Amino acid sequence: GVPASRSWLGQQSAGFHTPQPPFQLGKQWGDPAGGSAGEQKSKGRWAQSEKKTGLSGTEPGTCSGEGRQNYDLLVIGGGSGGLACAKEAAQLGKKVAVVDYVEPSPRGTRWGLGGTCVNVGCIPKKLMHQAALLGGMVRDAPHYGWALQPVPHDWTTMAEAVQNHVKSLNWGHRVQLQDRKVMYFNIKASFVDAHTVCGVAKGGKETLLSAEHIVIATGGRPRYPTHGHGEPRMGLTILSLCVLSSNRLVVGASYVALECAGFLTGLGLDTTVMIRSIPLRGFDQQMSSLVTEYMASQGTRFLRGCTPSRVQRLPDGQLQVTWEDLSSGKEDTGTFNTVLWAIGRIPETRSLNLEKAGVHTSPTSQKILVDAQETTSVPHIYAIGDIAEGRPELTPTAIMAGKLLAQRLCGQSSDVMDYDNVPTTVFTPLEYGCVGLSEEEAVARHGEEHVEVYHAYYKPLEFTVAERDASQCYIKMVCLRKPPQLVLGLHFLGPNAGEVTQGFALGIKCGASYAQVMRTVGIHPTCAEEVAKLRISKRSGLDPTVTGC
Amino acid sequence: SLGVECNILELDQVDDGANVQEVLSEITNQRTVPNIFVNKVHMGGCDRTFQAHQSGLLQKLLQEDSAYEYDLIVIGGGSGGLACAQEAAILGKKVMVLDFVVPTPQGTSWGLGGTCVNVGCVPKKLMHQAALLGQALKDARKFGWEYSHQVKHNWETMIEAVQNHIGSLNWGYRLSLREKSVTYVNSYGEFVEHHKIKATNRKGQETYYTAAKFVLATGQRPRYLGIPGDKEYCITSDDLFSLPYCPGKTLVVGASYVALECGGFLAGIGLDVTIMVRSILLRDFDQEMAEKVGSYMEQHGVKFLRKFVPVMVQQLEKGSPGKLKVVAKSTEGPETIEEIYNTVLLAIGRASCTRKIGLEKIGVKVNEKSGKIPVNDVEQTNVPYVYAVGDILEGKLELTPIAIQAGKLLARRLFAGSLEKCDYVNVPTTVFTPLEYGCCGLSEEKAIEVHKKENLEVRLCFMAY
Question: Which residue numbers delimit the FAD/NAD(P)-binding domain (chain A) (predicted)?
């Protein structure tokens, strides 16, 4: 069944909807009415290739590849979702092909198999975040007895190490596909018709691929500013940048902007973040402001309520940025070595020729419209991951959705992906992990008088000896006021937030009540145990600072 | 007619009379009215009250002075004891906490807060952190942080920082007790007769106190081996966390989490560490996990001497640290080995502090072999007014959060009419060895024992990246 209400982070209620299926539910392989008696017990059967419906042959003039290759499943996009789906289907015995292609960024950056997460997202982000955290540990170490003076950081060493790891993952994915006998093509795909895709390789060679079922998992790419900004600067290609620069401007307020600015500052680089309105739109705003407060205390500069109007390259190679302060209307300029745009991501649908297949997209977001089964407007075409409308833009949901889709198509299961209570973490210098509703969402949904928020400011034990400021280390649990006080959302700001939040996400998924959380014995000494000790409510007005054991 | 001031609550004249009656029934087992309390003690109904008047009990209860000086005396100011005492005080009771640390054979002592704060969880985690930072320094170079020299660790700097933090916690506890009007006495408490204890301070002065109820929360102390030289020359975790000099080349005897955690962080700060294990690692933990904990440590330079026990410790040189010769015997044959260490740290288990607190005087049952105290599911001993929490409980977990939980809930049951009991099932814990091991629920062995192998599925995953 489809859950009536879904609440996952990053989506305002206005932009989110449960798509009503005007489309048929995705079919499984084969015609249920036909098939020989000797077929396997499972519901999924696949049609003989002659019985394929809806194929009218190659469109004249679009693709002149030699004999078309037929597959049970064609996956367009070799990222988190695409690869998971492909591997699962192959494991269940289907003939699968994956096509993956990286259009170079305006700066010319490209990367290998694995999608955003592996190449220009989660993985390199976390590694650079770790590099920054290690810088903090280098500063803590003398307090704990290690005889060390402050040390400088070399970007090139880090970037090389990160790229080496990323490449090993690219390689690992290729080996995995090979092991599971999934055909991999490094070609740029676009639809010829509903069952046929034309792929163009780097050199121009074309291949025709057709499949009974097609999964679109092409993900997204960074948005660039539309006008007045001279030559576009890099989006996430910072991650392969090998140049030291003294002054960086990050434009944006997304988690991408804050995570990047965060680790840049942590590595000793002078960084400014320009935010048009609020940080981390869609996230709990109290938590978001604590996140930026911590960053500011660590040296990141913030230009709030400003929006860039012009970027010009100066004779010495630096960049002059002109911006408008929205509240005063005044203009200001600054000189930066690097400008990093992190103003959102757009779905990779433009070059797919979706209209040739009859796949519909949202007029506002350009994302592909899907139902609860991940089916598009075309019964045998599906979309998962960042490309699908209304889905969280997270690797683990794409992977799980891809696996479940493959299992459904192969008749192994009828489970649909549950997008409710998906935990996530923003890896800013002080990490923010959350699952469930923000306080604002809870109040909007249930009314303030029906919501109880328990909270605490705590100090990680490790911060004491290191003499670190823990002012923003904060936890809050948003619950229904009515007994048993169902937990609606948990928000944790502190070290290892991802590790902490993951465990509690299970509890929330199981419908934990406040009482159950309070009966969970803590592990001592940790930060996570503070979640199980949240006694002070906001409503009480009492001081929520944790004292002693 | 006795001229006693009475407060009368007519249940049929208040809005939530039915609710009040429910609660009364729960806490007194009586549904009828009148339901009479005298000086907060539940008397009963009409008949019981008349009987009490006839026997003289009613008059006794009506006296201004209650029978005992305190509502509650807690013996032991550790995790469980302090939690219980503070909760009882918040509920309006007159509470005393006695805490006293008998110095170690090496002369080490510490302040209020018990094992966790002074010689357990807190300093352990801080020193584990120091060791983790050592590893982080090595990692940092791979991530681009530039330094070429070998970084050395200074023990004294670390100890001072750790002890400063502990000192702030000791102080915090004293403040907290004072704020809640809990009387804190830094004296050794022991029973002399029913409802009465003798408190002996550092100078040997004796004072006596009485209370209606008692909670034993005296915790444990490290065991010694009972071999020549152990008390004279060896240290334990009680001494390690405030050791004023670097322990140097260290032999850790034991296979408990204490042994592995201490051995782990000592190696992590650069010391030469050997761990001598009689049989298995982390008894009662999942053995597959325990072996992985051990092999990680071995890969990172900790030496293990498996299936050996020390038989003698001799001092070769005095010093800070000195030099000790250890002779050990194999558990499987006649082989003996000898080795010289700067420090020998015994971590072979902990013994409950229940033998010398006068429990025999009031008949509290103590397990002869283990020294632990059997209690029922409301932490009550066989003597009705005596309860116990924490590490001294038989058959329960030796963990701070459990002791705190048990202590709080006990206070609420005793003084606020709560019925909630402490739940000891599925308690998570973590061993803070160099590679940390967190667990919750049954070990694989225990699961097989309880459910039989054919009813189980074990799923594994080795982390990819």
Answer: 71-402
CA A92, CA A84: separation in Å to the nearest integer?
A: 12
- The more confidently predicted of residues A430 and B31 is A430
Q: Tell me which residues of chain A have a C-beta less than 8 Å from any C-beta of chain B.
A: 123, 127, 130-131, 134-135, 137-138, 140-148, 151-158, 161, 165, 169, 267, 461-462, 464-465, 519-526, 529, 547-549
Task: Let me know: does A359 contact A192? Beta carbons within 8 Å.
Answer: no
Q: Hey, what amino acid is at A391?
A: R
Pairing of strands B235-236, B343-346: parallel
Burial class (CB in 10 A: 0-12, 13-18, 19+), A262: buried
| Angle ∠(A534,A540,A543) on CA atoms, nearest 5 | 65
Q: Which residues, 6+ apart, have CB-to-CB distance to A214 below 8 Å?
A: A73, A74, A75, A76, A195, A197, A357, A380, A381, A382
Q: Is the pLDDT assigned to residue A56 strictly greater than 60? A: no
**Residue B146 to residue A158, Cβ atoms within 8 A:** no
Q: How confident is the model at residue B464 (pLDDT cuts 50, 70, 90)?
A: low
The rounded distance, in Å, linking the Cα atoms of B96 and B94 is: 7
Cα distances (angstroms) measured from residue A178 to each of A87, A119, A406: 10, 20, 18
Diameter of chain B by CA atoms?
91
Residue A441 has pLDDT above 70, yes or no: yes
Name the token pair of B169: 């916690």
The strand pair at B206-216 and B308-317 is best described as unpaired
Which token pair is A300? 């990141």
Query: Each residue of B35-80: pLDDT tens digit?
Result: 887 766 677 788 877 877 776 667 666 654 468 999 999 999 999 9
Intra-chain end-to-end CA distance of chain A, in Å: 45
Per-residue DSSP letters for B319-363? STT-EEEEEEEESSSS-EEEEEESEEEE-S-EEES-TTSSHHHHT
Structure confidence at residue B429 (pLDDT): 97
Q: By three-state DSSP, how is residue B86 classified?
A: helix
SS3 B101: coil
Mean pLDDT, chain A, rounded, equals 87
Return the number of other C-beta atoms located less than 10 Å from residue B358's C-beta. Answer: 16
**Rounded Cα distance, A465 and A456, in Å:** 21
From the CA of B8, how many Å to the nearest CA of chain A? Answer: 31
SS3 A207: strand
Percentage, residues of chain A above pLDDT 70: 84
Residue B217, φ and ψ in degrees, nearest 5: -145, 50
A17 labelled catalytic: no
Give me the residues of B, 137-166, that contact A with CB < 8 A. 137, 139-140, 142-147, 151-158, 161-162, 165
Determine phi and psi for A492, rounding to 5 degrees: -125, 125
C-beta of residue A145 within 8 angstroms of C-beta of residue B133: no
Torsion of CA B126, B132, B134, B138, to 10 degrees: -160
**How far apart are the two ends of chain B, measured CA to CA in Å?**
82
Place of tokens 């009368």: B8
pTM over 0.80, yes/no: yes
Band the pLDDT of A95: cuts 50, 70, 90. very high
Mean pLDDT of B276-298: 97
In chain A, residues with a C-beta closer than 8 Å to the C-beta of B423 are 519, 521
Q: Is residue A13 scored above 80 in pLDDT?
A: no
DSSP code of A532? G
Q: How far is CA A365 from CA A79, A179, A345, B58, B319, in A?
A: 20, 37, 10, 80, 74
Q: pLDDT by residue (tens digit) across B79-108?
A: 999 999 999 999 999 999 999 999 999 999
